[in-house]
Amino acid sequence: MKEMRTRPVIAITPGDPSGIGPEIVLKALPEIKKWCRPVVFSSRQLLEQAGTCRISGLEDVEFCEPEFAWAQCPGKLSSENGRYAAEAIRLAVSRCMDGRCDALVTAPISKKAWELAGIDYPGHTEMLRDLAGVKKTMMLFYAPAFSVILHTIHIPLAAVPAFVTEDRVAEALRFAVGSYGNLVQKPFETRVCGLNPHAGEQGRLGTEDFQIRDAVLKLAAEGMNIRGPFPADTLFARLPRDGSVLVYAMYHDQGLAPIKTLYPDKCVNITLGLPFIRASVNHGTAFDIAGKGLADFQNLLETVRTTVRFLNGRQL
Q: What pTM was estimated for this model as a whole?
């Protein structure tokens, strides 16, 4: 583990300039400065023009501006802004990789704007994997009460069953549980969701849950503290809320709808598998309120706080 500075240096990317990312970064910066030394990968002008807010005391904040131009068009899709957001991420990752920044915190990008800009990634997670030169990453949603890791992320629901095989589930769970353990550094139990309603109802509602069952039995025999598959509609209601359980969900909405509903401000998205900590807000670009000064920045603050706490104890 690299030597930590007294106050960590955290790279912050404001996401798509057309969304609420620049506004929430601007609003949160005075509080963020109490936790770390932020480096904002954006034009200072972009933040200063975000929403209707005016924040003073930012003269000592370091800005690292992408070379691409950005368009001032709140709430509207723009290929320029998609390109700008992607370049900010590339610059920020470069600083994390060479040690000038200790971690990365990201505001939301627009996947459609990336598509318009010709950027062939479905989201942050996949782009960060390639920029960091690692083979595998996974998406964790952390909250103090419980956490969720996703088996599949940005694929259509119809494509999910093909990824639910004994070998794929077992391999992914080994990676997920090991990476999560390095991050939280405390004992925990893993509970695995079934794929189908009622976890398949003994095969009446699908056979994929037998594959999950066999993967769980294999890992339990290897010594992993793991149980499942459980019906997802009742699993979350019965969880202890003391941080002792990691939930492994089969697809995006199965895991994220419960944790985002219960903990909209406290839930933080963390990318597992990177050589540095990357954390993100748990919401999107909110184009419908962009530029109106209405965006709530509390989840961004929680993301920074969580990042700093993990930096103080994480094993890379």
A: 0.91
